[in-house]
Design goal:
alpha+beta; four-stranded antiparallel β-sheet; 2 helices; 4 strands
């Protein structure tokens, strides 16, 4: 089931990139790579099914560090649903991953 969710998220993100690429002449969303990482890291940390996914946005923290923010709505094996906010810090020049942070919330 985990692999199916990861595959589906990859397809969805790829299609989002394809749609954007068609509309803008070839550009893939900057956040697509980080969105896949957010999904995989959340599944690994929490052992959950991903129900929904939202890209919140990018923030420039310093000249060599940016943050992509995502909200994932998940369901654990006991059936509890909750949100996980994922911050991914990275170097925008080198695309090197620096840090992944998680915050749980029971709010939608």
């Amino acid at each position: 089931m985990k692999m199916l969710i990861v595959t589906l998220m990859t397809v969805v993100l790829s299609m989002a990139g394809f749609t954007t690429a068609s509309a803008t002449g070839g550009a893939v969303p900057d956040y697509a790579k980080w969105g896949i990482i957010a999904v995989k890291e959340t599944q690994t940390k929490y052992n959950v099914d991903i129900l929904d996914y939202k890209h919140i946005g990018r923030t420039s923290l310093t000249a060599d560090q940016s943050r992509e923010q995502f909200k994932l709505w998940v369901r654990n094996k006991e059936g509890k649903e909750f949100a996980v906010y994922v911050n991914i810090d990275f170097n925008p020049s080198t695309q090197q991953l620096k840090k992944v942070q998680f915050t749980e919330s029971d709010r939608r």
